[in-house]
Amino acid sequence: MILVDKNTRVLVQGITGREGSFHTKRMLNYGTRILAGVTPGKAGSTVHGVPVYDSVVDALKEHPEINASIAFVPARFMADAAYEAIDSGIRLLVVITEHIPVHEAMKFIGYGRLRGTVIVGPNTPGVISPGECKLGIMPETVFKPGRIGVVSRSGTLTYEIAMAMSKAGYGQSTCIGIGGDPVTGLDFIDVVRMLEEDDGTDAIVVIGEIGGDAEERLAEYLSKGRHKPVVAYIAGRTAPPGKRMGHAGAIISMGVGTAESKIEAFRRVGVPVAETPSQVPSLLERVLSGG
Amino acid sequence: MKLYEYEAKQVFKRYGIAVPEGRIAESPEEARAAALEIGLPVALKSQVLVAGRGKAGGILFADTAEDAYEIGTQLLGSTIKGLRVEKVLVEEKLRVERELYLAIVVDRAERCATILYSPVGGIDIEELARKMPGKISKVKVNPLVGLQPYHLRQLTARSELEGENRKMLADIVSRMYRIFVDYDCMLVESNPLALTDKGLVALDSRMIVDDNALYRHPEFTGRVVQGGFSYVELEGDIAVIGNGAGLTMATMDLIAHYGGRPACFLDIGGGAKAETVRDALRLASSRPGVKTVFMNILGGITRCDEVAKGIVSALDAVGGKPMVVRLAGTNEEEGLEILREAGISAYREMDPAAREAVKLAGR
Q1: Number of folded domains in chain A?
Q2: How many CB pairs under 8 A join A and B?
Q3: Contact criterion met (CB < 8 Å) for A245 and B142
Q4: A150 and A115, same structural domain?
Q5: Among A12, A188, B25, B168, which one is most buried in terms of CB atoms within 10 A?
């Protein structure tokens, strides 16, 4: 598994908000070790037994073993919260928040890369290593421990495919939502690289969608050298150009980002692309048996 | 959000980038008056948010005031690529020596701003990239650093312009970069940026403002359509409603995979309440030509019982059109029970549900 496991010690930024509080409880129930939360002005209170601090620095003073943060901070305040986490030395920051202006995201993501903070998201369901740690908002029941890595740009579609995989006996090492925004901290190549270095991962499922060229760039990366087996699914074959399909990043713009281009790029490098989400397990069976 | 050409030009002008002298006309009379005020000949440009309007006949030229009136009559109220022309931009017609391309875009792959320039302009950047990829220069600008003089030196060195024109280009790029940042743009473009007898002039201009930053630009708020969900209309007859953008797109694709045609994309988002579901069903089923409604819900933060309540409350609005429901995930049993009591059957998996929806629409 990658990014999160039993040793992950978590800070929740924006813990007192509706979403922050709700998902803190669900993550705790899953077994995620949440040590502290931050909401400016709410120091001294607790949320589901988790102590709340005014700042990330204050939280780290009391809980130096914290090594990851998950943020449920409203979009207008998210850049501030990200800089605070990065400057405090947090190594992994998961940004659940949607609707962050892209100019702000570019800056805090760029800053995080300079300072060595891995940022997942924005607009992501988060990261889960089934049975070990959930740092996100996904419904945990659809995931089962196993040896397939999953990387995706979407939420519910990932749950759909993970459910089909779990049912067919393909549990997951780690599932990562890179986020549905145009600019994200991790892209497909970053995550596939990590999964390829992970001894607990045998094969990788890539769930892409229209917009941008992250899938094409991944295909280009896979065309060079030896790689673990990869299976893909692309959403949006029937999406019209120029229309934003829900996600801020899901738009065919200036001729870039069509499903055909992505499917063709994967096929050219021998990555099978499922026609429907339910076909993913049978494609996994094929690539794992060497077919 | 896309700005109209005339809106983008107002911004350009405010930032000191030369644009042709122009007036907006909403009637043939206004078009004639504008032409006389500006001085003939003039260009009349349909204001529609779609690329390729020139080829579609949306840009015409007038040599006399009466021509301008006639063309105004012809363009106003017509449709270009399905969009109605409400306004025409009447502009002075400049003598163009040369057309260039200049844009600044959010570069998704590099997570930065990228300036795109070509000494060949006036055609689509897609077409340009296909035909003359060597003619496009790219300069990346790290947003933490901002635009530096070296970026401009790099760009102008490959501009195929000399002397004053080169300086003018650098000046326009700096001003455009300020627009890009100040307006939270996904794209600022001038195509063509033209070398004229009056120097470098932005003959056309385009701006796309980041929807997520509109709260910082109150001047545009009147144009934003608010709602709890995102909705895109399509050509087919099966209305597709789902939760989550990826799943809803996958649902459309699945409908097509089984031979059906999606009529819309409607994503109710995460954690939707019964009222949202009801409004979504009403919107989707009211679209002319819709024969079947297909609702595909996999509850995560969305609860199936809330969705089921919404479906039941919208039954009259669906108006007897066949509806196929797939309901699974959080509070699945409660949701299915609510539907059962209302006499609605539901699927737990999306494949058989999609096949059923296609079958029903085919009748």
Answers
A1: 2
A2: 174
A3: no
A4: no
A5: A12
Domain end point (choices A89, A120, A151): A120
Domain B230-362 of CATH type 3.40.50.261: yes
Collapsed DSSP state (helix, strand, coil) of residue B123: coil
CATH superfamily, with its number, for domain B21-92: ATP-grasp fold, A domain (3.30.1490.20)
Whether B189 is a known active-site residue: answer yes
Domain formed by B96-223, architecture:
2-Layer Sandwich (3.30)
Query: Do A154 and A256 fall into the same domain?
Result: yes
- Across A171-193, average pLDDT: 97
> pLDDT tens for residues A1-31?
999 999 999 999 999 999 999 999 999 999 9
Q: Which of B212, B213, B249 sits opposite A239 (nearest CB)?
A: B249
**Residue A25 structural domain:** 9-120
- Residue entry with tokens 């990590």: A194
- Residue B300, phi-psi category: left (phi > 0), alpha (psi -120 to 50), beta (remainder): alpha
Long-range CB contact pairs, B201-204, < 8 A, 24+: B201/B18, B201/B19, B201/B20, B201/B94, B202/B9, B202/B12, B202/B17, B202/B18, B202/B19, B202/B172, B203/B20, B203/B94, B203/B96, B203/B99, B204/B5
10-residue mean pLDDT series, chain B (363 residues): 95 98 97 96 94 89 96 95 92 95 95 96 83 91 98 96 95 98 97 94 96 89 63 93 95 97 92 89 88 93 91 85 92 94 92 96 84
A247 is catalytic: yes
CB distance A102–B257 less than 8 Å?
no
Write the CATH number for A95: 3.40.50.720
Q: Interface pTM (ipTM) of the complex?
A: 0.92
Contacts of A270 (CB under 8 A, 6+ apart): none
Q: DSSP assignment, residue B216?
A: G
